[in-house]
Amino acid sequence: MKVDSAIAKLLSLDLKSTTVSSSGGVGMSSASTAKITTKLEDGSKKDYFMKTATGSEAEIMFKGEHASLNALHDAVPDLCPASIGQGKLADSPGKSFLVTDFLDLSSRRTGGASAAPSLAAKMAKLHTTPAPVPTGFKKPMFGFPETTCCGDTPQPNDYRESWADFYAENRLRFILNQCIRMHGKEKDLTSLVETTIGKVVPRLIGDDHLNGGKGVTPVVVHGDLWSGNASRGTIGGRGDPQDVVYDPSAAYAHNEYDLGIMKMFGGFGSGFFSEYHKLCPKTEPQNEYDDRIALYELYHHLNHYALFGGGYKSGAIGIMRSLNGRYGHGKTEL
What we know:
There is one protein chain. The chain is an alpha+beta fold and about 325 residues long. The protein has helices at about 5-10, 55-75, 120-125, 165-185, 185-205, 255-265, 270-280, 290-310, 310-325, and strands at about 20, 30-40, 45-55, 85-90, 95-100, 105, 150, 155, 220, 230-235, 240-245, 250-255. A 5-stranded antiparallel sheet has the order 1-2-3-5-4, with helices on both faces. A 3-stranded antiparallel sheet has the order 6-10-11, with no helix packed on it.
């Protein structure tokens, strides 16, 4: 497998001492993955991980993943690999690439004791570190500087001051429109989502409601943290295997947003959440915590329905009927 000249330039590779081989990996359904191994001047070897894919969708996805990995890595360096660069291949027109530090994965449940922080501790650190103030703004905002993809769904991340507004418009109403585009307009689904946006969101996660009216501070979230995007591994060949994550779809958001998909598919046990919440306490009011997590899980049911159809619609409807029954009788605010 030949090294593209754009990759060689990005990494300053000596092509005579560099090889490319296939590598297992995850991400967009149409992406190819590879391992780049190069010999350094001191005789040691260095590995990189590369994704390539064709089309404008790949270019959008890789820009978002590049920014997402580095947002997580900047906050918690040993949580995920750093992204080195992304762009268009020079020798294969129409193809885009992403290059990161190589992540050597092993089973999340294997390996002996490690001195490295646990996944719960790393996620708690991520979720208690305020997000950076975006360029052009004077205070923290909810959103992200790039479009990010959750699965193959490109998500709009234009900045908003209000977390409730961001979640209602940039997630729920956006994904409802994706469902309509993929499956046609369905009256029951549309009505439930609109009620959830108009009544449940302001009541449950409104800025004047959370934390006694203080709202929440934007933090970097992974955005797609199901158990298949967490494992044990070594980053860049350094140290012993430790808990790591990958394939993020980041945003500056409410920390509990990440917990929705983590609860949806399971794989993170009670021990994880116990340790996590000792370090990152539940948002007030704590008695509404489970309902907030269900509200955040709703987005992923709708996204999976847009992408795959099937039973994800019934899961979304069940969540909305439950939440609307509790919180959907007040005045519409959004």
